[in-house]
Specification:
The complex is a heterodimer of chains A (about 325) and B (about 120). By secondary structure, chain A is of the alpha/beta class. Chain A contains 9 helices and 13 strands. Chain A is about 25% helix and about 20% strand. The relative contact order of chain A is 0.18. Classes of the chains: A alpha/beta (about 325), B alpha/beta (about 120).
Chain lengths: ~325, ~120
């Protein structure tokens, strides 16, 4: 199902030839991504793309963990509290995601959650997610989705998940030589617009990056895509170009987002963009439905289009491997 | 009594009466219109239906969320703002002043609508 949609040249505006002269053939890239729904590994190294099936990769990961390597998992859009078709049991699917993480042959060092933890910003919903994620026994870094900041401008979110953050909840940290930046683009949204970072956050980001070496791998994570996936459905961020301009000087930049409940990738010069599966419910491919609401699928198909993202970085290389795997 | 005087006295009687009738009848008419016309906006499939609704002054407009995801009703000029509405939740606002009120969903800002109060 995903295969047909992603490989259809009429589906998305971003599918095209190598406009950036970066040597990456978008057709080849999408061929790789067409596997994403069932689990595939994509490695981008020096502009050359290779891909391997997930099963193969799992087998090759038995090597011992070396210093300077980094492995983490991204999960997204848990929507705890959602109880409608196609998923009346988002607790069970989040638990399945946790089982999937705990079964990874190489255990990730930490987890990124790219927002929409809850469906309605209720304390009971946050409590339930916390309780389920506890079973991973891992440090978790969160950024808010619009569903997490519904009625209090994110006060409860920051109190629970981003106590040391700046402004409306943004922050950065370093892990094994890589620099991570968590951004907030779901607040103060303007009528008719897309996601927004705002001038205060942009200024902070510029300063945050100022003293880093250009060889430092950068991982930026935020809820709404920082590239324009489909503006008609609000799938983009109005002032993301400004943020991305600060990242141009770095050799390796990976941008991880959620919000659209499906996997997509795009490469633009030095920047790889990636969106993750939801653990709760799928959404239609851009323009493939009247609106972006939850996509209803047969029960037996549901877990094949929900999932997690496993990210691996090996120091000394420019490679950052992003593996999407579905819950089944 | 001259013809002119007669006309004048006639008008003196009719005019206040007509004025009084307008004053008395107008609110009643407005009220019955408000009850008869559906002052409801359906929030469905990430759109407001109708996206422009014209109502008489002092009308109460009710939004009802028929979507599977929450939405808000937020005036662009911050005149009114609802809490997040879950499926089938409602929000009402009474428009006491004539004007055009643009609003949007503050969660999904691509969703925009307008209430025209006459």
């Amino acid at each position: 199902m995903r295969k047909t949609k992603l490989s259809d040249p009429n589906t998305n505006g971003f599918i095209g030839h190598d406009h950036n002269n970066d040597g990456i053939d978008r057709r080849g890239f999408l061929k790789c991504m067409a596997w994403a729904g069932t689990g595939a590994l994509c490695v981008i190294e020096g502009g050359v793309l290779t891909s391997r099936a997930l099963a193969f990769d799992m087998g090759s990961k038995t090597k011992s963990h070396k210093m300077g390597e980094l492995s983490f998992v991204q999960i997204s859009d848990s929507h705890m509290g959602f109880n409608k078709p196609a998923n009346p049991d988002v607790i069970a699917t989040l638990q399945a995601a946790v089982d999937k993480i705990n079964a990874l042959p190489e255990q990730p060092e930490f987890i990124l959650h790219t927002g929409d933890i809850s469906h309605l910003s209720k304390p009971s919903e946050f409590d339930m997610v916390d309780q389920i994620l506890k079973a991973t026994n891992k440090e978790i870094f969160f950024v808010p989705g619009e569903h997490d900041v519904l009625n209090d401008d994110g006060a409860m979110f920051r109190e629970r998940y981003a106590k040391k953050s700046r402004g409306q909840g943004w922050y950065s940290f370093d892990k094994n030589g890589a620099h991570f930046i968590g951004l907030v683009n779901v607040m103060n949204l303007k009528a008719g617009g897309l996601g927004t970072l705002g001038s205060e956050q942009l200024q902070w980001m510029k300063n945050d990056l100022k003293h880093l070496k250009h060889s430092t791998p950068i991982v930026v994570f935020a809820h709404i895509p920082l590239w324009t996936v489909y503006p008609q459905w609000g799938w983009g961020t109005d002032d993301s170009a400004q943020a991305l301009s600060y990242l141009k000087k770095f050799g390796s930049v990976t941008v991880l987002n959620g919000h659209i409940h499906q996997t997509m990738q795009k490469v633009e010069g030095n920047i790889t963009f990636h969106t993750a599966f939801s653990t709760a419910f799928p959404q239609p491919a851009p323009g493939r439905a009247e609106g972006p609401g939850p996509m209803k699928v047969p029960a037996e198909q549901l877990r094949s289009i929900l999932g997690i993202t496993d990210v691996n970085y090996v120091q000394g290389r420019q490679a950052l491997a992003v593996v999407d795997s579905s819950l089944v | 009594m001259t013809k002119k005087k007669l006309l004048f006295s006639g008008m003196a009687v009719v005019l206040p009466l007509a004025l009084a009738m307008v004053l008395v009848l107008h609110p009643i008419r407005a009220k019955s219109e408000a009850a008869a016309s559906p002052m409801e906006v359906r929030v469905d499939n990430f759109t407001f239906g109708p996206d422009t609704l014209t109502v008489p002054v002092n009308s109460t407009v009710t939004w009802v969320n028929k979507d599977d995801v929450p939405h808000t009703i937020a005036s662009s000029d911050r005149v009114f703002k609802s809490k997040a509405l879950d499926t089938d939740d409602k929000y009402s606002y009474t428009f006491a002043k004539v004007g055009t009120y643009a609003y949007y969903c503050s969660i999904h800002p691509k969703m925009v609508g307008k209430i025209v109060v006459q």
